[in-house]
Design a protein that fits this description.
Order of helices and strands: EEHEEHEEEEHHH
Shape: globular
CATH topology of the largest domain: Structural Genomics Hypothetical 15.5 Kd Protein In mrcA-pckA Intergenic Region, Chain A
CATH class of the largest domain: Alpha Beta
Number of domains: 2
Radius of gyration: 18 Å
CATH superfamily of the largest domain: MM3350-like
Helix content: 25-40%
Number of helices: 5
Largest sheet: 8 strands, mixed
Distance between the termini: 30 Å
Structural class: alpha+beta
Strand content: 25-35%
CATH architecture of the largest domain: Roll
Number of strands: 8
Oligomer: single chain
Length: about 200
């Protein structure tokens, strides 16, 4: 058996300022449906909406029957990341929540990352908090940030109550993200066992 190989990826949420991004490590042959799960964790999304990867104008998702009646959507569970990218700076697109229209760019930073981390999934660094779910896309997020930063805004209290009382755009908790990745890694391994039933 050869030595395990890892990719170092960078993901950036497009059309928002200031930039929200992460760098994280995955096995090079991770399936796209599992990569979706990892992206949800490292970014801070809540698995509340449909997603798809767009790679060379082809779409991949688990929920192809719900996404596009006119264009074929391939099964993300049946393909692996290294089938699409293998060289530094190659990119793929990840789209989440078709209502809000969040588009992310995923870039391969290192195709042979040296990782001795025991859980195979690790967030290395990043900046800023994920937008709240259902905030209304990049336009709604901009409005949300303006409201909560304006002490005199009539919407400020309502907006803060909606997100649970507080929101800090600069918050980035690396330890929490990696804790969640460890939980996911252990659960995913368990699911792979032939006797496991959900």
């Amino acid at each position: 058996m050869g030595e395990a190989k890892y990719y170092l990826l960078r993901i950036e949420l497009l059309d928002v300022e200031p930039k929200i991004w992460r760098e994280f490590v995955v096995p090079y042959d991770i399936s796209l449906d599992r990569l979706h799960d990892v992206v949800q964790i490292v970014m801070g999304w809540e698995q509340s909406h449909l997603y798809q990867f767009v790679i060379k104008k082809k779409k991949y998702s688990e929920f192809n029957e719900y996404i596009d009646d006119f264009e074929e959507v391939k099964d993300s569970r049946l393909v692996r990341l290294n089938q699409f990218i293998s060289r530094k700076n190659q990119k793929i697109t990840y789209e989440y929540d078709f209502g809000d229209g969040w588009e992310h760019e995923i870039t391969l930073i290192n195709s042979n990352y040296n990782s001795d981390y025991p859980y195979e999934l690790e967030c290395i660094k990043g900046e800023r908090a994920c937008p709240p779910e259902d905030v209304g896309g990049s336009y709604g997020f901009t409005h949300f940030l303006e409201c909560i930063s304006d002490e005199e805004s009539q919407e400020r209290e309502e907006m803060l109550m909606w997100v649970g009382g507080e929101y800090d755009i600069d918050e980035f908790d690396l330890d929490y993200i990696n804790f969640e990745l460890i939980k996911y890694y252990n659960y995913a391994r368990l699911r792979a066992l032939p006797w496991f039933e959900e």
